[in-house]
């Protein structure tokens, strides 16, 4: 739902979240509510989440006097999927925001911060991702059998490694199982391909889109190793979900993935080598100690990120008052 300017006693007005994944938006909702409970202003500030909402909100930036804070949960498909033109267009939009009404930008790691700081003079803050909401998650104690159960949960698009997963599925040895869950960003290309190969191969299962946190837990509890190939990520919520369930993972050595791979001592492989690595023998040797993973995941959890966001929004407001 788009916000209106009714109720101007609120300092921050959270813009439309309907086109973002709301599984993990509790941190930003909580931070906005908490700041509004403590600070009142006659001049509202919009909070935008995601690059798609930046595009939707652009007319208001150009033709109105509404200030905003932009929270970029990753740099989005425009930046990753459309080559030089996409990156140029994305950074141009960021530049327009910075030159008009953006008071600050929020990103999820230092690599994204460096990208944004190249084109803006506004403050750029970092958080530990969007905030993992583990409510309704559950984990079971499981023992690894003689085979290897692989899992892939994602939106299906080339920049999320869907092509690599399709290559793996087509060459999967009989001593390994692959469980695939998710949905196409556009159309049905990958879902149809995964469904077809699942019907032909007994060791491949296609679940389609998962609709609840409980279903995410059911998926994670079935697998031994989580696969997360990607061109670039923000906080990489799917990796955080695997970590919470104490499931080892293999990801790619790119911004947003490398942070978690380094912290939790799991492989980060170049995208071009990903499928060969998963199909090779070394993947059978991945046995990290997961006993303290949830404790180490604490900074990435919803309440921790909510506190980070509250501090950021309060700081932005105070700087606005002083200017």
Overview of the molecule:
The chain is of the alpha/beta class. The protein contains 13 helices and 11 strands. It folds into 2 domains: 12-132 and 301-322, Rossmann fold; 148-297, Rossmann fold (3-Layer(aba) Sandwich). The strands form 2 sheets. The protein has a 6-stranded parallel beta sheet with strand order 8-7-6-9-10-11, sandwiched between helices. Strands 1-2-3-4-5 form a 5-stranded parallel beta sheet, with helices on both faces. The longest helix has 21 residues, at 302-322. The chain is globular and about 65 Å long. The chain starts with 11 loop residues before the first strand and ends with a helix. Residues 1-8 have low confidence and may be disordered.
The largest β sheet comes out as: 6 strands, parallel
The fraction of residues in strands falls at: 15-25%
What is the terminal-to-terminal distance? 31 Å
Structural class: alpha/beta
Secondary structure tally: strands: 11
Helix content: 40-55%
- Fourth CATH level, the homologous superfamily of the largest domain: Glycogen Phosphorylase B
CATH topology of the largest domain: Rossmann fold
Strand order of the largest sheet: 8-7-6-9-10-11
What are the segments in which pLDDT stays under 50 over at least 5 consecutive residues?
1-8
* Tally of contiguous helical segments: 13
CATH architecture of the largest domain: 3-Layer(aba) Sandwich
The total tally of domains equals 2
Averaged pLDDT, please? 91
By CATH reckoning, the class of the largest domain would read Alpha Beta
- Approximate shape: globular
Radius of gyration: 21 Å
Order of helices and strands: EHEHEHHEHEEHEHEHEHEHEHHH
